[in-house]
Amino acid sequence: MQNITFKVTGMSCNHCVKTIQESVGRLAGVEEVEVDLKSGEVQVDFDAEKVAAVEIKKEIEEQGYDAEQIVPFF
Fold first, then answer.
1. Which of 36, 38, 45, 72 could anchor a disulfide with 32, C-beta 3.0 to 4.6 Å?
2. Contact 36, 7 (CB under 8 A)
3. Domains in the chain, please, with CATH?
4. What's residue 71's pLDDT?
5. Measured between alpha carbons, how far apart are the two ends of the chain, in Å?
6. Where do the DSSP E strands lie in 1-74?
7. How far apart are the C-alpha atoms of 1 and 40, rounded to whole Å?
8. Of 45, 18, 42, nearest to 29 (Cα)?
């Protein structure tokens, strides 16, 4: 299982949160989707053998939002 975080712009309400949770959650291999409206971040737990990060990003963007992967600094 992997985790990825996106900075998503264009979200303004709980409907936006629900839209992203439902659309990304339907992708094969996605286990959990957490959307934080205040920070504009979307965290996704997923199986990389079933779905690629680029597919998750594309799904968010197809819902009308802009998404950029947040790369953690270690």
1. 45
2. no
3. 2-70 (3.30.70.100)
4. 83
5. 19
6. 2-9, 30-36, 41-46, 66-70
7. 23
8. 45
CA atoms lying within 13 Å on the CB side of residue 64: 7
Q: How many CB atoms lie within 10 A of CB 1?
A: 9
Confidence at 74, pLDDT banded by 50, 70, 90: low
Using DSSP's 3-state secondary structure scheme, residue 22 falls into helix
Rounded to whole angstroms, the Cα distance separating 48 from 46 reads: 6
CB 3 within 8 A of CB 44: yes
Cβ atoms within 10 Å of 64's Cβ, excluding its own: 11
- Name the token pair of 65: 């939002």
Q: What is the rounded (10 degree) CA torsion for 11, 53, 49, 63?
A: 40
Tokens of 23: 């659309």
